[in-house]
Amino acid sequence: xxxxxxxxMRPRTLDEVVGQQHLVGSGKIIRRMVEARMLSSxxxxxxxxxxxxxxxxxxxxxxxxxxxMLNAATDTKKDLQIVAEEAKMSGxxxxxxxxxxxxxxxxxxFLLPHLxxxxxxxxxxxxxxxYITINPAIRSRTQIFEVKPLSEEDIQKAIHEALIDKExxxxxxxxxxxxxxxxxxxxxxxxDLRSALNGLELAVKSTPENEQKKIVLSLKIIExxxxxxxxxxxxxxxxxxxxxxxxxKSIRGSDVxxxxxxxARLVEAGDLPIICRRLMVVAYEDxxxxxxxxxxxxxxxxxxxxxxGFPEARIPLATVVIDLCLSPKSNSGIVAIxxxxxxxxxxxxxxxxxxxxxxxxxxxxxxxxxxxYQYPHNFDNAWVDQQYLPNKIKNASYYQPIDTGKxxxxxxxxxxxxxxxxxxxxxxx
Length: 429
Known about the structure:
The chain is of the alpha/beta class. The chain contains 19 helices and 7 strands.
């Protein structure tokens, strides 16, 4: 039986790896390790289908070391022993150990001395955060690298390669992939190249030729093969981004029903990363100090959604969308930082006042660093009469409170009190 397209198209060298240029690009860490032939065991973590196995395969192909694949959850200690014996007989073996976070103590204890000796170079693959899920004994003997979701451009490049490769890909088929179908295939799989390539292969091999002996892959065919409906895209994909824009603006406008509608369209399109990113932005840009607890709940909901994946992810997402819609709104945070940035970009900065400068080094006193600084906690209300801004902008004011929620109302009251204290100070002078 022929192996899946995604398996056949695995890179044979680092130059064939799609994406992950922060690791395998020219001058980057994994490429440097391979070129110097100074490989060490590593853990690659990131979402499914983003290239963890591909990088391991490419490392083996670039170094000509033997390459073996095992699964920490399903393969046994005996399987590890076979790999270790091969390493003793023939030299270094690169072992891709999938689901490395599920390595039990017995297998771990067997593996550790072989990692120490360098006979086995383990490349552990996991979708879980290794700093939380992997035993410190393994972590201390490996380098940890994050593998990131592939961009639409990365996936489209891989699709084109698969369509023209006659040896490993689909180059022996006369395929016409419509532009909208290509766009949907590269988006609907959420950076998962494995899903994109396997969906492409299903589409090619299940679609009959037309009268011109050509296999034409339409948007409808791709939708069926990846089991994701496309939102209606125009030529430039503008409708996709229109929905995202409408999603944020509906939450900002406190329209629960509209926000849930646009959320449902994004869920149906499978755009979990976009939904999560947009919700995080909304929570801090549009709700902000109006309801800081809702922003914290958004972070928790996003983490739950990413952990669950679809379809269950829709539940925490819907919950937090309703929460954000009905929360008091405040954009004072983004307005304040943008005002401060505007001053910086216009050259309005100036020197840090001497009494605020770092004084924790020899000679600081001679330079008048830190002299005269007053510790606010030694004074009533933890406030003392001293200047913090540089002279050039000492009267600048960036934060403009918005009284739409109880929390920011309290902040406003304190802000006003401090301003009154400053006025009293200035009046005395």
